[in-house]
From TrEMBL:
It comes from Bradyrhizobium oligotrophicum S58. Pfam families: FecR. It comes from the Bacteria. Residues 45-143 form the FecR protein domain. This is FecR protein domain-containing protein. Transmembrane segments: none annotated.
């Protein structure tokens, strides 16, 4: 496995394919608007404003849809090759999201919220992260959802939902239902193309990934 130690933190790892109204990138103290076709890079945060939405597609064709008033950070990426990751970590702040896995091995994906860690086994997850609560709704595939104190649930059937609620003093409670009170579907319906799935890996031109196969 090729591994270059001086991986560039500003390497393009995907792009914005849908932008509605106010969508910003935040890198350190700088903030700038994101437009369709703009690249997204490791360690930057994407934030949507009021009545705004965005869909990002990673190089492995992972599709990430964001509702209004949502924040997402691409924490870590380790490339396998030009169209897949060996390791990809995504940190969700507040907001609602739809996550559709791409061509990487399912074990490569790790999603974190302030209250939960999510191991993805494919393929479509709806996630809502609010102050004091995270909800994970399985639409397709399977997932393992854990609290930060390692209480875990397996989601294996469409509609299986994990609800993690803060209980004070660093503790949280987790429970499972198959009758979720929320999903990302209404957000999809309100924004054309937000939940379309784009296969970026099959259509993107070859890129030179020399020096970025050791993401942080």
């Amino acid at each position: 496995m090729l591994c270059i130690a001086d991986a560039r933190a500003d390497s393009r790892i995907g792009e914005a394919v849908l932008v509605q109204k106010d969508v910003l990138r935040i890198a350190g103290a700088s903030t700038s608007p994101i437009s369709v076709g703009d690249g997204v890079v490791r360690n930057e945060t994407v934030r949507t404003g009021n009545d705004s939405a965005a869909r990002l597609v990673m190089i492995d064709s992972t599709n990430l849809s964001l509702s209004a008033n949502a924040t997402l950070t691409l924490d870590r990426t380790v490339f396998n090759d030009e169209t897949s990751y060996r390791d990809i970590a995504i940190r969700l702040g507040t907001g609602a999201f739809r996550f559709v896995t791409g061509h990487s091995e399912k074990a490569a994906y790790k999603i974190n919220t302030p209250l939960a860690t999510i191991g993805v086994r494919g393929t479509i997850l709806d996630i809502r992260s609010q102050r004091g609560q995270t909800m994970v709704v399985l639409q397709e595939g399977a997932a393992r959802v854990c609290t930060l104190t390692f209480q875990c649930l397996e989601l294996t059937q469409p509609g299986d939902t994990a609800i993690i609620t803060a209980a004070g003093q660093g503790r949280s409670a987790i429970r499972k239902t198959n009758n979720p009170s929320w999903s990302f579907a209404a957000t999809c319906a309100s924004t054309s193309g937000l939940c379309t799935v784009t296969d970026l890996a099959s259509s993107a031109p070859p890129q030179d990934f020399t020096g970025i196969l050791c993401g942080r």
